[in-house]
Amino acid sequence: NNNHVNSVRVASPASNVTSELADIDWDNLGFGLMPTDYMYMMKCSQGDSFSKGELQRFGKIELSPSAGVLNYGQGLFEGLKAYRKHDGNILLFRPEENAIRLRMGAERMCMPSPTVEQFIEAVRATVLANERWIPPPGKGSLYIRPLLMGSGAVLGLAPAPEYTFLIYVSPVGNYFKEGLAPINLIVETEMHRATPGGTGGVKTIGNYAAVLKAQGTAKANGYSDVLYLDSVHKRYLEEVSSCNVFVVKGNVISTPAIKGTILPGITRKSILDVARSQGFQVEERLVTVDELINADEVFCTGTAVVVSPVGSITYQNERITYGNDGVGRVSQQLYSALTSLQMGLTEDKMGWIVEL
Ligand code: COI
What we know:
Layout: H1 6-9, E1 38-45, E2 53-57, H2 68-72, E3 75-77, E4 80-84, E5 90-93, H3 95-108, H4 116-129, E6 141-150, E7 162-172, E8 183-188, H5 206-209, H6 212-220, E9 225-229, E10 237-240, E11 244-249, E12 252-256, H7 266-277, E13 281-285, H8 291-294, E14 297-302, E15 306-315, E16 318-321, H9 329-342, E17 353-355
Parallel strand pairs: 8-9, 8-15, 12-13
Antiparallel strand pairs: 1-2, 1-7, 3-6, 4-5, 4-6, 5-17, 6-7, 9-10, 11-12, 11-14, 14-15, 15-16
Helix pairs in contact: 3-4
Bound molecules: 2-OXO-4-methylpentanoic acid.
2-OXO-4-methylpentanoic acid is lined by residues 79, 208, 242, 302-304.
């Protein structure tokens, strides 16, 4: 019973849906790892290109204690989701955007990266191999987590001699424990997520370790997460630990512009387009922390969080509230528009959906 799974690779998407349903409580999915059947692995040496990957049984991986990723943080990740449609088909949302972002990040982190085609093909194979773990329509999605890492051994500081591209998946529901209810944020005034010239604009693993401390304090004090300010002026909004942030005022929807310190979210970019197509005026610019005071609504976007309405933001001991404990009108409208598209409930005029 070894790792090669050609039988799974050739399984047709529509097959075995009823006979191989995973035995889990689909109504109570949170955002945690549920081990599935298969993962995808592809390796290459430094200076080479990725050429051939394969599906393996999901499980532990072997790394040298001196792997580049373990010692010097040479690693990137991605996140995207597969949805099951009512007709049984499986939908991916803009996977080529993840592929492109991974390639940009790999350049910054001195790593080789799969081509866009290799990336999408690997995602497709991994999702199909784990098809029985895709939640039924409306119950959640299959979260797809690609990783790219320096897996070769180093001791002196240098790019690793070998790289591994890996994809695993897990069925997920809502990211925040609040579910779809508004989240409560606190503006972090001491610590920063990113600095100009750093790696805040790429999805490197270290960016996420760096926010754990402030996030932990925030959670201990009853907040859902932390909203970061820019590290130079300490005045402009950047992002939340795991998502981008938007401010609504009248018909104008604003979000911090991408300038190297903010993660270029695919949901962020999609929401900007959806909002524009619905007649909102959309602005990518510097957004000051003071604008939070007069905003009508604030919401966050991300693959994991989707569109999360913000119910309150605490800044320097002042608590600003939004939406009277409910979901703001604009946040609700954009959430519905985006998720209907992702779940295949509305026609995809944008060309964003890839049907497996
Ligand atoms: C995602 O939204 O997919 C992310 O990568 C954020 C992560 C912290 C869950």
